[in-house]
Design brief:
Blueprint (H helix, E strand, L loop, with lengths): L1 H14 L15 E3 L2 E5 L4 E12 L2 E12 L5 E15 L6 E12 L4 E12 L2 E11 L4 E5 L14 E3 L28
Antiparallel strand pairs: 1-3, 2-3, 3-4, 4-5, 5-6, 6-7, 7-8, 8-9, 8-10
Protein backbone atom coordinates (compact mmCIF):
# COMPACT_ATOMS: atom_id res chain seq x y z
CA UNK A 1 0.00 0.00 0.00
CA UNK A 2 2.82 2.40 0.84
CA UNK A 3 4.36 1.91 -2.60
CA UNK A 4 1.00 2.70 -4.20
CA UNK A 5 0.72 5.98 -2.28
CA UNK A 6 4.33 6.93 -3.05
CA UNK A 7 3.86 6.04 -6.70
CA UNK A 8 0.63 8.08 -6.91
CA UNK A 9 2.25 11.03 -5.22
CA UNK A 10 5.34 10.90 -7.41
CA UNK A 11 3.36 10.80 -10.61
CA UNK A 12 1.01 13.56 -9.64
CA UNK A 13 3.74 15.82 -8.32
CA UNK A 14 5.74 15.53 -11.49
CA UNK A 15 2.69 16.08 -13.60
CA UNK A 16 2.12 19.50 -12.17
CA UNK A 17 5.60 20.85 -12.78
CA UNK A 18 6.80 21.49 -9.17
CA UNK A 19 8.21 19.27 -6.44
CA UNK A 20 9.30 15.92 -7.95
CA UNK A 21 10.06 17.50 -11.29
CA UNK A 22 13.48 18.66 -12.38
CA UNK A 23 14.05 21.51 -9.89
CA UNK A 24 16.00 23.70 -12.26
CA UNK A 25 13.03 23.77 -14.67
CA UNK A 26 11.17 26.32 -12.54
CA UNK A 27 13.92 28.87 -13.14
CA UNK A 28 14.05 28.43 -16.91
CA UNK A 29 12.18 30.48 -19.46
CA UNK A 30 8.67 29.45 -20.47
CA UNK A 31 8.17 29.26 -24.23
CA UNK A 32 4.64 29.09 -25.63
CA UNK A 33 3.97 28.39 -29.30
CA UNK A 34 0.42 28.47 -30.68
CA UNK A 35 -1.50 29.35 -33.81
CA UNK A 36 -3.24 32.23 -32.04
CA UNK A 37 -3.21 34.24 -28.79
CA UNK A 38 -6.01 36.39 -27.38
CA UNK A 39 -4.89 38.40 -24.33
CA UNK A 40 -7.55 40.36 -22.44
CA UNK A 41 -5.82 42.64 -19.90
CA UNK A 42 -9.12 43.83 -18.38
CA UNK A 43 -10.17 40.24 -17.60
CA UNK A 44 -6.59 39.14 -16.85
CA UNK A 45 -6.96 36.22 -19.24
CA UNK A 46 -4.74 34.85 -21.99
CA UNK A 47 -5.99 32.14 -24.33
CA UNK A 48 -3.65 30.25 -26.64
CA UNK A 49 -5.36 28.33 -29.46
CA UNK A 50 -4.28 25.76 -32.02
CA UNK A 51 -1.37 23.37 -31.69
CA UNK A 52 -0.25 24.82 -28.37
CA UNK A 53 3.20 23.67 -27.24
CA UNK A 54 4.58 24.91 -23.92
CA UNK A 55 8.14 24.17 -22.82
CA UNK A 56 10.07 25.05 -19.69
CA UNK A 57 13.35 23.22 -19.17
CA UNK A 58 12.61 19.49 -19.47
CA UNK A 59 8.82 20.01 -19.25
CA UNK A 60 6.81 19.87 -22.48
CA UNK A 61 3.03 20.17 -22.72
CA UNK A 62 0.79 20.06 -25.77
CA UNK A 63 -2.89 21.01 -26.10
CA UNK A 64 -5.39 22.47 -28.52
CA UNK A 65 -6.17 25.34 -26.15
CA UNK A 66 -4.60 26.74 -22.97
CA UNK A 67 -6.25 29.49 -20.94
CA UNK A 68 -4.45 31.31 -18.13
CA UNK A 69 -6.56 33.40 -15.75
CA UNK A 70 -4.92 35.60 -13.13
CA UNK A 71 -6.68 36.94 -10.01
CA UNK A 72 -6.01 40.24 -8.21
CA UNK A 73 -3.32 38.59 -6.02
CA UNK A 74 -1.57 37.32 -9.19
CA UNK A 75 -2.49 33.67 -8.57
CA UNK A 76 -3.09 31.77 -11.76
CA UNK A 77 -5.50 29.08 -12.92
CA UNK A 78 -4.26 27.17 -15.96
CA UNK A 79 -6.78 25.19 -18.04
CA UNK A 80 -5.57 23.08 -20.97
CA UNK A 81 -7.92 21.30 -23.37
CA UNK A 82 -6.93 18.97 -26.12
CA UNK A 83 -7.31 15.74 -27.91
CA UNK A 84 -5.56 14.87 -25.63
CA UNK A 85 -3.55 17.25 -23.45
CA UNK A 86 -0.10 15.70 -23.05
CA UNK A 87 2.83 16.48 -20.81
CA UNK A 88 6.27 15.07 -20.23
CA UNK A 89 8.90 16.07 -17.69
CA UNK A 90 12.11 14.67 -16.25
CA UNK A 91 12.07 13.78 -12.57
CA UNK A 92 14.57 15.47 -10.28
CA UNK A 93 17.82 13.61 -9.50
CA UNK A 94 16.88 10.41 -11.38
CA UNK A 95 16.99 9.36 -15.00
CA UNK A 96 13.21 8.96 -15.29
CA UNK A 97 10.46 10.79 -17.10
CA UNK A 98 6.83 11.28 -16.15
CA UNK A 99 4.20 11.45 -18.88
CA UNK A 100 0.53 12.28 -18.67
CA UNK A 101 -2.54 12.43 -20.87
CA UNK A 102 -6.09 13.75 -20.36
CA UNK A 103 -8.84 15.54 -22.25
CA UNK A 104 -8.54 18.49 -19.88
CA UNK A 105 -5.93 19.52 -17.30
CA UNK A 106 -6.24 22.24 -14.66
CA UNK A 107 -3.62 23.60 -12.30
CA UNK A 108 -4.56 26.07 -9.57
CA UNK A 109 -1.34 27.66 -8.26
CA UNK A 110 -3.18 29.25 -5.30
CA UNK A 111 -4.30 25.86 -3.97
CA UNK A 112 -1.41 23.85 -5.51
CA UNK A 113 -3.87 21.35 -6.95
CA UNK A 114 -3.59 19.54 -10.29
CA UNK A 115 -6.70 17.99 -11.83
CA UNK A 116 -6.82 15.76 -14.92
CA UNK A 117 -10.22 15.06 -16.52
CA UNK A 118 -11.35 12.54 -19.12
CA UNK A 119 -9.34 9.40 -19.88
CA UNK A 120 -6.62 10.58 -17.52
CA UNK A 121 -3.37 8.63 -17.39
CA UNK A 122 -0.05 9.31 -15.67
CA UNK A 123 2.95 7.03 -16.06
CA UNK A 124 6.57 6.81 -15.01
CA UNK A 125 8.70 4.00 -16.38
CA UNK A 126 6.39 0.97 -16.46
CA UNK A 127 4.17 2.21 -13.59
CA UNK A 128 0.83 3.73 -14.53
CA UNK A 129 -2.37 5.20 -13.05
CA UNK A 130 -5.55 5.59 -15.10
CA UNK A 131 -9.03 6.86 -14.32
CA UNK A 132 -11.50 9.37 -15.64
CA UNK A 133 -10.35 11.84 -12.98
CA UNK A 134 -6.96 12.26 -11.29
CA UNK A 135 -6.35 14.96 -8.69
CA UNK A 136 -3.27 15.75 -6.65
CA UNK A 137 -3.14 18.22 -3.76
CA UNK A 138 0.54 19.13 -3.45
CA UNK A 139 0.26 20.78 -0.05
CA UNK A 140 -1.49 17.88 1.62
CA UNK A 141 0.25 15.28 -0.61
CA UNK A 142 -3.07 13.59 -1.32
CA UNK A 143 -3.90 11.89 -4.61
CA UNK A 144 -7.41 10.95 -5.73
CA UNK A 145 -8.19 8.79 -8.74
CA UNK A 146 -11.79 7.97 -9.64
CA UNK A 147 -14.14 6.99 -12.42
CA UNK A 148 -15.70 10.47 -12.49
CA UNK A 149 -14.92 13.99 -11.24
CA UNK A 150 -16.28 15.05 -7.84
CA UNK A 151 -20.02 15.67 -7.92
CA UNK A 152 -20.60 13.35 -10.88
CA UNK A 153 -21.72 9.76 -10.84
CA UNK A 154 -19.24 7.33 -12.37
CA UNK A 155 -20.62 5.06 -15.09
CA UNK A 156 -21.18 1.47 -13.86
CA UNK A 157 -18.25 0.12 -15.89
CA UNK A 158 -15.86 2.89 -14.81
CA UNK A 159 -12.79 1.67 -12.98
CA UNK A 160 -9.48 2.97 -11.67
CA UNK A 161 -6.40 1.06 -12.74
CA UNK A 162 -2.93 1.11 -11.20
CA UNK A 163 0.03 -0.82 -12.57
CA UNK A 164 3.11 -1.04 -10.34
CA UNK A 165 6.19 -3.03 -11.22
CA UNK A 166 8.07 -4.23 -8.15
CA UNK A 167 11.67 -3.11 -7.84
CA UNK A 168 14.27 -5.57 -9.07
CA UNK A 169 15.82 -7.61 -6.31
CA UNK A 170 19.56 -7.81 -5.77
CA UNK A 171 21.10 -11.24 -6.47
CA UNK A 172 21.23 -13.71 -3.57
CA UNK A 173 23.76 -12.55 -0.99
CA UNK A 174 23.39 -8.87 -1.88
CA UNK A 175 25.31 -6.82 -4.35
CA UNK A 176 28.88 -7.77 -4.99
CA UNK A 177 31.36 -4.98 -5.06
CA UNK A 178 34.18 -5.25 -7.55
CA UNK A 179 37.59 -5.94 -6.07
CA UNK A 180 39.65 -2.78 -5.72
CA UNK A 181 42.31 -2.25 -8.34
CA UNK A 182 45.83 -2.80 -7.09
CA UNK A 183 47.80 -0.08 -8.88
CA UNK A 184 51.53 -0.55 -9.04
CA UNK A 185 54.13 2.14 -9.51
CA UNK A 186 55.68 2.53 -12.93
CA UNK A 187 59.10 0.79 -12.66
CA UNK A 188 60.63 3.30 -15.11
CA UNK A 189 59.95 6.29 -12.86
CA UNK A 190 61.65 7.12 -9.63
CA UNK A 191 59.62 8.73 -6.83
Amino acid sequence: MRSLVLFSATLAICAAFPAGAERSDREKEIVVNADRLVADDAKRTSTFNGNVVITQGTMRMTAEQVTVQEDAQRHKLYVARGAPVTFRQKRDKVDEWVEGFAQRAEFDDRQDVLRLYGNARVQSNQNQITGDFISYDMRREVAEVSGAPPGQTAPPDSRVKVIILPPKKAPEGGERKPAPLDLKADPGKQP
